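FIELD: query
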Amino acid sequence: MIYLELFLTFFMIGAFTIGGGYAMLPLMQEQVANHWGDIISGETVTNFIAVSESTPGPFAVNMATYIGSEVGGLFGSVCATLGVVLPSFLIILIVAKCYDKFRNSSVVKGCMTGLKPAVVGLIGGAILSVAAGVFFPAGLSLMPFRSISFYLSAAIFAGMLVLALKKVHPILIVVISAAAGIVIGYLGLW
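FIELD: result
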């Protein structure tokens, strides 16, 4: 039963989210909390995001595989991964078949124009949600400001933001972030 639930949940996430992995994040977080909140905490989802972002492959597939593995082991990861990938695969097959016929349609152009800001909004919402979980894990309060881990997280964030704005290669940013986190964790500051 858990395997079917994993497949159907991630199939729905894959089918009803437009814009890729980051746009899927709010729906993924909600569905994980609704279905497996007793197994996977909000902090664990934040860890899933970090691992999924720093491993090769599409973000949404990595998230689905990781969550599926935590909930249902190896077969759970296969079910969740197939569930999240299958809708896109089917939709791309249909779009590829019909694209030339409808490429110049005003309805198709209007749809694409309307979807772009929605995707940006979903990604922005996901960023704020993850940031709140990292910087304010216990909710909005003054407590995080009394912790050194808040300032270390903020420093790493600021440093990586500067590197991103200076167009440093994303792989180097991920490596530097991981190294900084390892050093800080090793020193026991976290």
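FIELD: remark
The CA atoms of residues 3 and 74 lie 10 Å apart.
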